[in-house]
Write a structure and sequence with these properties.
single chain; mainly beta; two-stranded antiparallel sheet; 1 helix; 5% helix
Length: 112
């Protein structure tokens, strides 16, 4: 499941991964380097690239690591979230790029 919510000047994207194979653990990324932050975590809105927002300590507003773990009977195998500068109101879809995951295109934005 993918959710993109624009509220004021922030776009929050949430991903939930469904289990495919029970008992499997997969590390997508273990940390975020400066190079990763600048090149591997972004939203493309039209032709404009938006990097993750950072907190007052310059840490990206996302999961510091991503592990997907499947167990029998679990509805989800993991989740990811990130906060980006919101694109203009006339932009209704974005693409998301994060390491280890194929680029996700045509994510519809919900305004709140």
């Amino acid at each position: 499941m993918i959710e993109a919510v624009r509220h004021a000047d922030i776009l929050t994207i949430k991903l939930r991964f469904k289990p495919l194979v029970a008992g499997k653990v997969e590390r997508i990324y273990d940390s975020i380097s400066k190079s990763d932050y600048e090149n591997s975590f972004y939203v493309l809105a039209g032709s404009k690239k938006h990097l993750l927002l950072t907190d007052s300590n310059d840490k990206p507003l996302t999961n510091p690591y991503l592990v997907i773990k499947t167990t029998n009977g679990s509805a989800t195998a993991g989740s990811w979230h990130g906060r980006f500068p919101a694109p203009p109101k006339d932009v209704t879809e974005v693409s998301l790029t994060i390491p280890g995951i194929e680029t996700l295109d045509a994510i519809k934005i919900t305004d709140r």
